[in-house]
Write a structure and sequence with these properties.
This protein is an alpha/beta fold and about 240 residues long. The protein is about 35% helix and about 25% strand. The protein has one domain (about 5-235): Rossmann fold. The strands form 2 sheets. Strands 2-1-3-4-11-10-9-6-7 form a 9-stranded mixed sheet, with helices on both faces. Strand 9 (about 160-165) and strand 10 (about 175) form a beta hairpin.
Length: about 240
C-alpha cells in the first residue's frame, strides 16, 4: 500500500490569496498530482503535533507568513521534531520557512537578509556540489525558481552542503544528509500564485523602490523545482507514481 506523504504546514496565506488559490495543502497536492486525501496534513502553526518521524514517510515542511526568528513555541517544537527525524535519516524536504527552520534546528543561523527581499522568478545557479547531487544533477548549470522571502539562512548548519545559489542569496538549496534537503524557493508555486503574491505586496514593493509591473511581467514557468519536489516524494516512496 502506498504511503501518504506528510505535509507539515507552517502557515496559511492571507485571506485574499487563500480565496483565489486555496490553502497550502491544495498548492502542494496540485504540484504533486495528488487527489484530495492522498496527503496527510498537520497544521503545526496551529499547534498540531506531527506523528513520530518515519523513514517510510516523505515529509515536506511548507513556507509560512511567520518568521523563524520569532521563535514561536510551535516552531521550536517542530525544530525538535526535525532533529528527531534527522537522527533516523527520515526523508525531509523543507520549503522557504521549512528550509530556514531545518537549518535553525540543526545549528545554522537564520535572520533577515542584509539586502532585503527576494521575490519573483529568479535564476538559480548550481554549485559544483549541486551539479554532482542526484537531486539537481540533471538541471544543467542553472534553472528558474519562484521566490518570496525576507529572512534567509545566513549560516548553514555544520555539515550542510550548499547545492545552489541565486545572485541575491548564496543558500538556495541545502543538503543535510542522504535523505534531507531544503530550498529557499517555492517548487509548489504556479505562475498564477507567484503573480498573486506580487500583487498582494504591490504597496510595500513600491515603497522599497521596486516596480511590481516589471516583476509581474518577468514571471515565468519554473519546471525544474517542481520536478525536484516530485522526485523527492517518489524517491522516498518508491510506490508513488511519478
Amino acid at each position: 500500500m502506498q504511503t501518504k506523504p506528510l505535509l507539515i504546514q507552517t502557515g496559511t496565506p492571507p485571506d485574499a490569496l487563500r480565496a483565489a488559490h486555496g490553502d497550502l495543502p491544495a498548492w502542494f497536492s496540485a504540484a504533486l498530482g495528488l487527489a484530495p486525501g492522498h496527503m496527510t496534513v498537520v497544521r503545526a502553526f496551529e499547534g498540531e503535533t506531527p506523528p513520530a518521524p518515519d523513514v517510510r514517510v516523505p515529509t515536506i515542511l511548507t513556507g509560512s507568513w511567520s518568521m523563524v526568528t520569532e521563535r514561536a513555541a510551535w516552531s521550536e517544537n517542530l525544530a525538535a521534531w526535525i532533529r528527531d527525524a534527522m537522527a533516523i535519516e527520515a526523508p525531509l524536504f523543507g520549503v522557504c520557512y521549512g528550509h530556514q527552520l531545518i537549518a535553525h534546528a540543526l545549528g545554522g543561523v537564520v535572520g533577515y537578509h542584509p539586502d532585503g527581499r527576494e521575490i519573483g522568478s529568479q535564476k538559480i545557479t548550481l554549485t559544483a556540489s549541486g551539479r554532482a547531487d542526484p537531486a539537481l544533477g540533471d538541471a544543467g548549470s542553472d534553472f528558474v525558481a519562484q521566490l518570496t522571502h525576507m529572512q534567509t539562512v545566513l549560516t548553514p548548519p555544520p555539515g550542510a552542503v550548499v547545492l545552489a545559489a541565486s545572485a541575491h542569496d548564496p543558500h538556495q538549496v541545502l543538503r543535510y544528509g542522504p535523505n534531507a534537503l531544503s530550498t529557499q524557493f517555492h517548487p509548489e508555486f504556479t505562475t498564477d500564485i507567484m503573480r498573486g503574491i506580487i500583487a498582494s505586496r504591490e504597496t510595500v514593493l513600491r515603497d522599497e523602490g521596486r516596480d511590481p509591473q516589471n516583476l509581474q511581467a518577468s514571471v515565468t514557468e519554473a519546471p525544474f523545482p517542481l520536478q525536484m519536489l516530485r522526485r523527492f516524494v517518489a524517491g522516498a516512496n518508491p510506490e508513488a507514481s511519478e
